[in-house]
Design brief:
This protein is mainly alpha-helical. The N terminus is likely disordered.
Amino acid sequence: VLSSGINAEYGGRWVTIKLSQDRHPAVYGMCIQYMGPQYDLVVRLTAASALEAAVGDFAFHPSTFSGFLGGAVERLYELLQRVEECESRVKILGVLNAIIEGCGKHIKGFIEPLIGWLPRLWNVAEDHVILQTQLLLTARKLSQCLGEDSPKLYFFTEPVLTFVMTKDPEMALLEDGLALWLALLQNAPSSTPHLISLFEGLEELLQLGSENLKTSLLIMECTILLDPFSISTRYGRALLSVCSRLYTDVSGEAQILIMNILLTFLKTVSKDNWPEEIESMFHVILSSLREREG
């Protein structure tokens, strides 16, 4: 075990220096080998960290790693089931996130067991904000990877996003929760009642004008594109009113996003469903433009 630990540690050092492209597969194979259940847990976690460094290397290429992808995900999944400390779980999820980001859609065929494990990990996270944050990040990356298959995540993301939007008193998870919601909207093949119901909490976030304003505005635009009828009939008046009030108080970038929302609304919503607030929003934008020109 001592010898294995030294080799695994040495592997961690290997990937911190420049390696020729033909040596990368040897490093991947060694890391995955020492992540096996026959080795001490410390060795396995060290090997996982070394693999994360290797995958994060600027010279990393998915095609070089493709033959190791299934084995790496399997070993990391085994580790997730083996460890109990939140810190270790955060570390392992960090390695998985690096692989998901590096390999993209190539990983789709290997992630079903991980997806099934996410609710259990969330339940044991309880008040461990760092682990909860890492799980939100993992779900976001999985959604981006799955694309139109992202509904496979809904059994996990629906209760989690409901918690983040309505029951998280400290709002500590809000930024990552909004990023996950946006990713789900961008990859959703169609509207769902839950994705639309979350919209109810968006008005309050927009009124806060917080650091999450940009993401909130992007969520608003994506939701209108996904289900223009539901949004216009249920939330259109209130949200257009909020955008009108916001427009003169926000930065140029946020103003552009608000104008995009208005244009998206006009393009996708039937004129018969335009609320009267659209006219007032036009007046606000035109008045602001005149002031700049003056």
